[in-house]
Specification:
The chain is 13% helix and 36% strand. The relative contact order is 0.08.
Amino acid sequence: MKSLFFTTLFLLIFQSSGYLSAKSTDVVILTDQSSVRERLSFNNDWFFLKNDQIAQPDLNDVNWKHLNLPHDWAIEGPFVQEYPGNTGKRPYWGIGWYRKSFSLSKKDRNSQFYLDMDGAMSHSTVWLNGKLLGGWPYGYTSFRLDLTSQLNFGKKNELIVRLENPDESSRWYPGGGIYRNVWLVKTSKVHIGHWGTYVTTPIVEKQSATVHVNIQMENQSGSNAKVLAKTQVYELSKDGRKRNQPIAVSNSQLIEMNGVNDSAHFEIVVTNPKIWDVRTPNLYVAVTSLEQSGKIVDRYETIFGIRTIKFDPDKGFFLNGEHLKINGVCNHHDLGALGTAVNTRALERQIELLKEMGCNAIRTSHNPPAPELLELCDKMGMLIMDEAFDCWAGGKTKNDYHLDYALWHEKDLRAMVRRDRNHPCVILWSIGNEVQEQGKPNGPEVAAGLSEIIRSEDPTRPTSVGCNNSNAGFNGFQKGVDVFGYNYKPGLYEKFHTTNPEIPLIGSETSSCISTRGEYFFPVDPAKSGGKANFQMSSYDLYAPGWGSSPDFEFVGQDKNPHVAGEFVWTGFDYLGEPTPYNKDVTNLLNFSNPEDKAKMEKELKELGKIAVPSRSSYFGIMDLCGFKKDRFYSYQSKWRPDFPMAHLFPHWNWSDRIGQITPVHLYTSGDEAELFLNGVSQGRKKKEPFQYRLQWDSVCYQPGELKVIAYKNGEKWAENVVKTTGQAFKIQLSPDRNELMADGSDLSYVTISITDKEGLTVPNAKNRLTFELTGPGEIVAVDNGDPTCHESFQSKERNAFNGLCLVIIRTKAGQSGNIVLKAQSAGLKDAVIQMIAK
């Protein structure tokens, strides 16, 4: 970590070069004098420059880019082939500067003002009017800075943020910039502190629930203060609105604040409580008010849920006393083509897709998430394993968190827990992932110490850790947490339980199956290390790196060991970076099905002077980078939603070069047996054997036409699926996920573009070139096709379809309503037009 002394010196040099005289928009923050607390979005009208040598005397102000936050400086690229394969081939490293001008009324002199940053990647340093305020190194941590003493009231204020992202600081694409939301918070001198409430529900019964509310208060007035505090509990409607009347009210407490900090505790009984769970995520809000001299000086709202959790070493996980298998996924924080700049609708869409699959939990691998993710999971009924670190003192890359661990790990842990502990969705705190200390003598002591830090902030949830070291479950490390997590060790589930009968167990990271949507290679290689060609992975879902497995293998481990609380699959979505198995020089991995393709690629790589990897993104996802479903989606749906009638056949049935050749057909179904037909001729009826999770017809000889399967359950017809050989590409089909959008400048519509034949069937191998044009009060913010080897800019208005599909992401413009029209064109195909509306 660069020293603050160096950074401060850097700014002093920078100021002498005339930086503060740079042109900027003067934004006036209008405050409501009747309000006792305001939390205002501070995202608009920033200026940005990425320049490692910014302290030059001849700085040209016109190079600063005017933008709104959140902002990922690296997602616009360009993709560079020579960049290391593990971080998405994007320039995330370097120094970036953000500047914002704003004014405050003279009437606000008696108020407190804070800058709340949800996350900035990374090593942030913040100045206001030339004075250093502070900063935070870990790019995933939310933090607050007090602006009050350095503010100019009635005049312009200049806020400057410097970020420094070291190279080799991440194993995946971390993004760069102020990539999460920023807030200006105004309070009275006496107020509830930052993350100053802690709500728990220690007693939950059908007739009543006991709610504990602890509050931390701050007094910045410079004198003693008498405060009358109370809390009211309101029920929230499904759309998040507070009901008119409180359902419970605490007694008022008179508190004499003789110092800067003080606390209070309320116990409130809620009768006939509405319970929070994954099916009915009922929410409440605790409204805490502080009254001074007969006047309300602060009002602080805390959303919470009434629920109980329990991890049992013999039976797994219980939510509200009912057994619930954790069907979870791990997700990194990037949003595909949008990069790491947080967007609430993008996160909401991911959760919708996961719930359709039967997923009920997310592990925030391997860092604290954006606050918006937890807010959505509260509302939508999704459980969370909230994770702190990917490493401790032992690093994994040259410049990762291990450099900051000694000075910052306790601050980062406390910040994560204090921010997130009121969310009912959070059921586990993870102290780390695959840390080097698993196998070191000091590992148990370090793990126990981190767990104690968390328990001092929140004793109501267990701590956990993700371990890939087999010995970590038996060498004492396992005793440092409350719920032990094994990564990719289904074969050790039974031994762990026998050796540690008192410790609950979860599959903290599982499978790591790798596939590319719509790619199938023949002959089908049964070895898990097979399935590679042309820098793609076959979608037969049989392939994984050495540490991983197919989903089927993990299912066996879970089903044979019901004491395991569940699993978190690696991963829900493809993500930028870590393109295993093509994540390093691949001299020994080149495996092309077409000799001409191999010769062409070898020539291109030779011209680069080395063997390089074209892959920009991972192959691990159950869905690709666009959120398009891979075949594996239906594997998990068939397992996790056993009462949902479904059947899914693969591969596609467009194989003009394979007539008469063996082309295996696989089926995922929630049924227990099925019969397959090719052009009306039965290929046999098969029944699932114990611990079998797919049905296979491995001797089917390809003939064009129709594959049809009829699935049965308990002898009754359950579901069916048809896959047809399609005609040639004929037209473009546009399918938006939403036709009506909010004109707020952040709402999104995800438009799926399909290349279809005359009958409207998606042509599964189509790669037609597409161009897009948008009119109306919106903009195309990203385009993608899910191809892990595609290096076209996400901001381009052109793209080849990949295996029949493409994606356009449209964003509204703030304050501009009206019709948004998207037009798609491709040579030789019929144009397509679709209309949406921004309100």
